[in-house]
Write a sequence for this structure.
């Protein structure tokens, strides 16, 4: 990482570290909560204002860029106003910038002012004004914004956590995948851009890059989709603050639904955590004037099976995104591993045409949404051949007898270090099992042949073998808080399954 000199302006004290800025920015949010401003709404306003402040800074020496923001809507037009005049002008500014093209227009798309008190809006503007954002290093700006995003994800009531994949998990996946400069990398459900940024950081830190390589890394490497407007805005800002994308250029992230049509281009690598939830549906008014719903089914000729299950559809779509030498790592819920019908069809086909070589079973308690039981599938595309491509599937069970919580015992990269070592990123053909039926039955790393999997009911990949100690040794139970959390997680997971069944029957 590059060292950065603390920034000073005429109106502020020196900036000491990222944590101080995050704390300062977030403390203001707590005050606005009394006015009914949610974390997500606050983050939106922060995004508008930081972007606008940076746009103004880029018009000044030494940059002197024409960003496309008229003088009457620039940053100074906000700092020079107060009261009702400020509120009215801010609304006009948001509407005007939403009409712009490229990244600027996407950042301000459907923008609204959620801060109804002009005095507090003025204080927020003043706080943003205190920092010279363009003089902060990209890693500092990025860390600040990601810190705010994580704070927002912690607000479980807002549902923001569903767009936030644990950073430790992302980093471990990227460490296994080892993206290289020159690879094209995509995420068809990119949320706030965590996977893309982790890949960017990895490539930037692994090898000395020349000027042209740095340009290609920032401008030609990454692409993605995000259909939720607010989340798309946060993603674009997150990428931009990390140095990906130009303020006056086109966006690397599309707002289109990735599942609607085949991809326009093939990529070298897909890293993704598609949205959980059993299925997609749309609500409409029937002939009787009552609200009704209908499953969204994607009738794609390039799909192996037609289903309303979003995760199964994403898995199929991700396969279509890969070049013949492409690779993927995808986070999926348990149902993708054992569901019959279209789910089984897709699993069989995936083992036939790709090398589905690794599954990482994840513990509960690592996602902001309760009751989530998930896995990571690693598979490599392959040139077509007569015989099935997958020969062996290696499974790492990091779920059984593993206890994590978001606050007291969060999962770190170090917790996944053994998995990374077992994965053998440099040469996965050198793998060896840690499981042994006689000497180490609790070994977490075990190999299964394709033939063994095909013999299982519905070709289930939901495979576990380690005995749950909490069920065996009543004298050695986990700590009470761990036990309670486990119970909650299991109840939540059970309820989610029942809701899914009810939804299917309705």
């Amino acid at each position: 990482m590059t060292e950065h000199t603390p920034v000073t302006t005429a109106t502020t004290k020196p900036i000491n570290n990222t944590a101080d800025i995050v704390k300062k920015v977030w403390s203001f949010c707590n005050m606005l909560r009394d006015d009914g401003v949610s974390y997500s709404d606050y983050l939106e306003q922060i995004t508008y204002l930081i972007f606008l402040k940076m746009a103004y800074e880029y018009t000044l020496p030494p940059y002197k860029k024409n960003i496309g923001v008229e003088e009457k809507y620039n940053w100074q037009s906000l700092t020079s106003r107060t009261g009702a005049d400020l509120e009215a002008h801010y609304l006009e500014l948001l509407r005007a910038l939403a009409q712009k093209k490229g990244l600027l227009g996407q950042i301000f798309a459907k923008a609204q002012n959620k801060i109804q008190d002009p005095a507090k809006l003025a204080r927020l503007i003043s706080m943003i004004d205190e920092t010279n954002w363009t003089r902060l290093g990209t890693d500092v700006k990025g860390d600040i914004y990601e810190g705010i995003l994580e704070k927002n994800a912690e607000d479980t009531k807002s549902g923001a956590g569903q767009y936030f994949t644990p950073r430790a998990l992302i980093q471990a996946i990227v460490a296994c995948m080892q993206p290289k400069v020159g690879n094209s990398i995509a995420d068809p459900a990119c949320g706030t851009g965590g996977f893309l940024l982790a890949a960017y950081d990895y490539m930037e830190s692994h090898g000395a890059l020349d000027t042209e390589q740095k340009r290609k890394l920032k401008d030609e490497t990454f692409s993605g989709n995000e259909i939720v407007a607010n989340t798309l805005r946060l993603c674009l800002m997150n990428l931009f603050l990390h140095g990906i994308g130009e303020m006056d250029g086109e966006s690397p992230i599309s707002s289109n639904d990735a599942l609607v049509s085949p991809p326009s281009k093939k990529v070298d690598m897909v890293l993704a955590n598609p949205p959980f939830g059993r299925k997609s549906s749309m609500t409409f008014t029937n002939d009787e004037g009552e609200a009704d719903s209908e499953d969204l089914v994607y009738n794609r000729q390039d799909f192996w099976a037609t289903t309303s299950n979003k995760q199964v559809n994403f898995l199929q779509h991700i396969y279509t995104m890969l070049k013949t030498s492409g690779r993927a790592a995808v986070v999926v819920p348990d149902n993708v591993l054992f569901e019959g019908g279209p789910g089984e069809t897709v699993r069989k086909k995936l083992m036939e045409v790709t090398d589905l070589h690794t599954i990482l079973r994840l513990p509960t308690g690592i996602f902001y949404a309760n009751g989530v039981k998930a896995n990571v599938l690693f598979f490599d595309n392959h040139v077509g051949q007569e015989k099935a491509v997958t020969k062996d599937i290696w499974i790492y069970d990091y779920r059984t007898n593993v206890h994590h919580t978001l606050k007291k015992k969060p999962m770190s990269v170090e917790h996944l270090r053994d998995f990374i070592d077992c994965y053998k990123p440099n040469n996965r053909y050198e793998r060896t099992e840690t499981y042994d039926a006689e000497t180490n039955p609790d070994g977490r790393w075990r190999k299964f042949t394709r033939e063994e999997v095909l013999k299982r009911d519905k070709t289930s990949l939901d495979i576990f073998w380690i005995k749950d100690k909490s069920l065996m040794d009543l004298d050695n139970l986990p700590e009470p808080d761990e036990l309670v959390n486990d119970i909650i997680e299991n109840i939540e997971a059970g309820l989610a399954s029942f809701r899914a069944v009810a939804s299917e029957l309705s």
Notes: The mean pLDDT is 84. The first strand starts at residue 185 and ends at 187.
